[in-house]
Design goal:
This protein is of the alpha+beta class and about 270 residues long. The protein has one domain: Arylamine N-acetyltransferase fold. Helix content is about 30%, strand content about 30%. The chain is built from 8 helices and 13 strands. The strands form 2 sheets. The chain has an 8-stranded antiparallel sheet with strand order 5-4-3-2-9-8-7-6. The chain has a 5-stranded antiparallel sheet with strand order 1-10-11-12-13. Helix 1 packs parallel to helix 4 and helix 3 packs across helix 8.
Length: about 270
Amino acid sequence: MADEWIDRYLALLGVGRGAPDLATLNAIIRAHRGIAFENVSSLIRRQATPEGPVPLLDLGAVLATWTAGGGGGVCYEVGSMLGRLLEELGFVAYPVLAQISFPGSHSALMAELGGSQLLVDVGNGQPLFEAIPVDTTTEISRAGLHYRFRLDPTTAKLVQDRWVEGAFKPFVTYEMSAATPAEMEASYQRHHALPPMTFVMQTFRLVRCTDDEVIQLRDHELTRYTAGAKSTEEVHGLARYRELVAGPFGFPGMDVERGLRAWTAITGGAI
């Protein structure tokens, strides 16, 4: 990628160029929390191409959208962008596939530093703001949500557990080796498949994470998670969607009406 793309990306994140080390990596990951998780861009992309494969990602266009506050992305958008940025900054980083509902239903990045692998899972709608070492068990708690990462000795795969109803339960299983471009392309297209294979074509969803709060808009329900409480609110009407998307989710440039039209056309939902 051109230096201009790298400079604009780093300026958006508010991060300077640094050595390809853990401090720089974590600074970039933490800064990425400013780009909210959303599948509205995917719904619009699918509606614009009703049949057949959707167009490949244009990383220049994605950056322009981010800079204009027009959207964020899910795992494949954020992973493709961040993976390229890290590579251009001198990191050893590569995409890996992961299983939530089925193999390849999620993707993330692995970085290598000092001979060790580190998980970089930014496009996930979870408050994970650091690289996660693969060779040790790591627990993270933010906004009342709890996660554990552990290497499964039986499968030699990394497992993300979530705290649910008083116990850690497996949620994501990550492959350890790099996915091929063909595998990543197939995963990208599966997220746009109709009938839907993943949540991406099933809901209207945005998530923004900070250290103290996770806020999620899913269809007609707005949920806020904090260390002390969980609250919900019903959302209806174009004006309220616009207010939320431009406000707490940080997308003043998003075409909310177009996104809602795509959502209703694809899922049969109603505004």
